[in-house]
Protein: Large ribosomal subunit protein uL4
Organism: Arenibacter nanhaiticus
Amino acid sequence: MKVAVLDIKGKETGREVELSDAVFAIEPNNHAVYLDVKQYLAHQRQGTHKSKERAEIAGSTRKIKKQKGTGTARAGSIKSPVFRGGGRIFGPRPKDYKQKLNKNVKRLARRSALTLKSNENAITVVENFNFEAPKTKEFKDILKSLGLENKKSLIVLGEANNNVYLSSRNLQNSEVVTNAELSTYKILNANNVVLLEGSLEGIESNLIK
């Protein structure tokens, strides 16, 4: 599949690149996409939730009233969960939400996500660019030229570029990643995926194994 290469002004350079059908034109596997997105979201959870149980509450352990003859239920420590200020019964405890997923399934999910974006004509290939220093205004000008100023966009670099990354960091609707950081969730969450020329070889080598 051939795609025209644009410059940072949004105009065609007169060149085309060949996008691999093994990555951008497969039969999408929706279940693999579901599993990969589910794993990604699970890994975003810190799992540090915790409430104190009766053994962890500060307070006296003396018996607060005699066992019999009060006409009410038996009661022991003031830290009992039935009293205000007592410990919580079966409260949340720290938990690791990480899930395992086969590497081949993850690759299939990402190829499926890229195929879905390709089918929606939501993939743009742009020639490589760089900034001499972090400039959010220059980055916004590029998005505006590509018609992505008010859309969620995912820009994929061939390798880490600190100036480009810092230029985009303050923009809520735009995210910059390298081809190694590409994930199914990020692909699907974006309205448009912008691939720099230098990222294509890395994407194909990472996803075709």
Notes: The longest helix spans residues 103-119. The chain is about 35% helix and 15% strand. The chain has a mean pLDDT of 93. The two ends are 20 Å apart (CA to CA).
